[in-house]
User: Fold Kynurenine 3-monooxygenase from Actinokineospora auranticolor.
Amino acid sequence: MGAGSPDASGGRDIRDVAVVGAGLSGCLMAVLLARRGYRVRVFERRPDPRLGAGDEGRSINLGLSQRGINALRHAGLLDRVLAHAAPMRGRVVHLPDGDLGYHPYGTSDDQILRSVLRHDLNVVLLDAAESAGVALRFDARLADLDKADGAVTLRFEDGAVVEAGTVIGADGAFSTVRARMQRGEPADYHQEFLPWGYKELSIAAGAPGDRRADPESLHVWPADGGLVVAHPNADRSLTGTIFLPLTGPGGFDALRTPDAVRAMITARFPDLTGLVPDVVEQFLSQPTGHLVTVRTAPWHWRGRVVLLGDACHAVYPFYGQGMNSAFEDCVILDGCLDRNAADHAAAFAEYQAIRKADTDVLADLSAANFVELRDRLSSPLFLARKKADLALNRLLGRRWVPLYTMISHTTTPYAEALRRSRRQNATLAWLACATAAAGTLLIHRLSRQGK
Amino acid sequence: MGAGSPDASGGRDIRDVAVVGAGLSGCLMAVLLARRGYRVRVFERRPDPRLGAGDEGRSINLGLSQRGINALRHAGLLDRVLAHAAPMRGRVVHLPDGDLGYHPYGTSDDQILRSVLRHDLNVVLLDAAESAGVALRFDARLADLDKADGAVTLRFEDGAVVEAGTVIGADGAFSTVRARMQRGEPADYHQEFLPWGYKELSIAAGAPGDRRADPESLHVWPADGGLVVAHPNADRSLTGTIFLPLTGPGGFDALRTPDAVRAMITARFPDLTGLVPDVVEQFLSQPTGHLVTVRTAPWHWRGRVVLLGDACHAVYPFYGQGMNSAFEDCVILDGCLDRNAADHAAAFAEYQAIRKADTDVLADLSAANFVELRDRLSSPLFLARKKADLALNRLLGRRWVPLYTMISHTTTPYAEALRRSRRQNATLAWLACATAAAGTLLIHRLSRQGK
Assistant:
């Protein structure tokens, strides 16, 4: 069946696909579909990033973990991406008193994360899509989408009209495809903003051996009412993100003068002033970004439209799983298309049935990790618990895998990871009780013998 | 300060108000604002209902309870509305085996609900608004809203452009005012559809004394996988609503032939066939409505735009509080304007601060009451609990007020009502435990004496 020829239902060939959004998941899905023999066109509202256009105000440095690595391997693109990546073997915690803490990410060598610039990753994926025969159109901003059983029509702001057998919405948290697909349908939609925002900071490479800017670690500065996270780049510099409340004392709204910014940095992140001499100028010149969680259903419409990544499940960045989960979506959708090649309605329904419960859990975990990064990283009790987690993992192996490890270093479905973690915690509580009871009994016996 | 003259901030007079939506809350708020001396214009996308246009497919019969009654009294409109209303003194439950149950709504004569046609109520409110000097424009469908600090501009689909100092969005669950007000803002938005829908049924007046169509009761038919609720009209007929799952066996999607509908009615609502001889024809000719819960924040923008009723808190109809809570919004907003006459930003912030927690609780209670009406009304244990509630109320008076009574027959804020109900339940559990303990102790003593 050639692309453009009618399918069994008399409509347009379902293998004639328009992907809206040439970001990370849109490009990866385009590659996978092209390899299935589909005709694939990708439409992106921004200019071609390979032509040097900026990517300002977006989180520009991402942590690839197992799910993303697995997806890139599935698409045969892992080596090309890793050539641009910096390894992250653990987390350096910059405590407010100036001390440095360190937690390794796992107990084995494959349990490391890879830091990569969004721009580099996007270029690899765009090139791979073009090599696979995908047609890319930039500066194409979607204005409307007309649903019809036989085909879907995309209308762009420049007047272009495109008909496709299948439309994939990979156009982000404020997806136009989603809004138009769900219009007039009884669709659930939840959008929630964190009352905190963020700005980006560039941190120059440190002196060799300076652990404060270790280029093989993720860096976290937890503070009272603030948080900085930084990823290393391949050139040993770091890209940081400062998270603060949007409003109130100490929030972005109140930090509009050099004096106010300097006072806040000195009070909350003292070692940043040394690492980033121009931190005040950077802070005042960067835009403030917002953080949103999106949950919705349905993710698809009659086998003709389907959503990927942020368009159906935007999460806060605090578990580092936004890109990884979007890549995993592509692999799962690809598997559903394998099993239902002639029936996209069945494929998309299976994809949502498999995936939505997992990404709902990811949204919860990502919100909970914000609290952890903000409040607990500086707590000795919490650090002890993290160490105990890793020690139990070393001792018990696969029978004790910390939740963070399952999320970041395995492809265990998110919801299953949470269930396993809860079972492990229940077992631990039981063991603690049993130990306490046995101890009590022992003391009781010893005291009777002493009588 | 005349309408249209600039306010202190140099913008348009904040007392020059455009209300979008001439439904129940929009009209009531218009009356209250006109009485404060504001210039008020109301814009409604539908035709004037007083000119005989239909109101098809909407829930056309509503239950006024204490909050709505209080709001109408506050506006001086209660008597005019009650002239069109039918009293509902209790609930007749039509059990699947053909038996009838009856629960009075309260223990005193003022604890009754009033059933009124939405159309009649809307006409009273429109007439009252016009008498108070409000300008009404119908067939005016809002296309866009431009936010600016000095004034807000409304653009209508027919090309009309209106500038106002303050805009009130009373345009329902899918509010255009809300969407435009929140555009570009970090706004939380949650929309959730019940997997059940509804159709309306007309039930002719019964023979005098026939309890199956008692014209002074609300009627409920609980069934396995279905629910019918009917309100009486002043002419002794009833207006019913049949609620069913949208999909699956026994859902609306599967009920498209006379045979299928007849079989479903006979199995689930046997006494309806006698009461509504043309129930099958009505069922097949009525459209299926959807039910949505909406929660959102913020409810206002810089003292220039504010939302009312369904536009900021649509709830399922199962507690009968949609209209009542929307009317209560008007009274609360009116009070906030009293306390902050010159500062709408403060008034609107106070309104949301007072009100949002309450309407969030109402959304939860309305969803929980769906389960109650569907599953528990036919359970003997639940009926016993309802009777015990009323008996405790008779015995303990104000120290034991059932939750339903606080919601429907008082103006106790919704969240406070829920807290009181939880405290009462905890006390009851404590009393039950204490009684059991005392009983055990007594038995223990008696058995020792018997030794």
